[in-house]
Amino acid sequence: MAGSRLETVGSIFSRTRDLIRAGVLKEKPLWFDIYNAFPPLREPVFRRPRLRYGKAKAPIQDIFYHEDRIRAKFYATYGSGQKAFDLFNPNFKSTCQRFVEKYIELQKLGEADEEKLFVDTGKALLAEGVILRRVGEARTVSILLLKLLLELVACLSEFKGRLDFLSPRRKLVFLNFRSNTVRLNILELGGNGCFWEQASCQ
């Protein structure tokens, strides 16, 4: 429709009316008669905004709190965690909020170094029973546990020959994990005493 390309000229009603008069539109739109019967008080035409002279208004600054920097560093270091926020509990405090409060508390004691203060806050929360895991640390721990489990399976298959000769009475197996060594303690309890064997593998 060639006549409707100038959106800034006239209103949508006047442009549609002209298209109907020129024969471009064969049928009137549903809203045309309603608009004609009840025209708006102010015709919706394009008006260029007036240029305002004088002192320019300063842009509105974003609201920024001192705690936001601590929160940003916390989430960058430890992530958001897997625990969901309990919005039904009005007294609920997230781990991040507890970290921020402890950080400010230690900061008021006179500590100035931000890095040391950040580490000390993590240690203080750890003393209170809050365990913080760094981003990517959980995946590393899972890989280490998987590797340790594979080594344990290899060790158990190696010790299978030693376990077979024990009677099917009560057997207590203790596993000690120290550094890279898997230690297997086998204890068999019986009526004639007890049998003890200790073996280890790297």
TrEMBL record:
Domain Small ribosomal subunit protein mS23 conserved, first and last residues per copy: 2-129
State one molecular function term (GO).
structural constituent of ribosome
Question: One Pfam family for this entry, by name?
Answer: MRP-S23
Quote the subcellular location field of this record.
Mitochondrion
Q: Which family does it belong to?
A: Belongs to the mitochondrion-specific ribosomal protein mS23 family.
Spell out the InterPro entries in the cross-references.
mS23_dom, mS23_dom_met, Ribosomal_mS23_met
Its recorded name reads Small ribosomal subunit protein mS23
Coiled-coil ranges from the UniProt annotation: none
Instruction: Give the species this sequence originates from.
Output: Equus caballus (Horse)
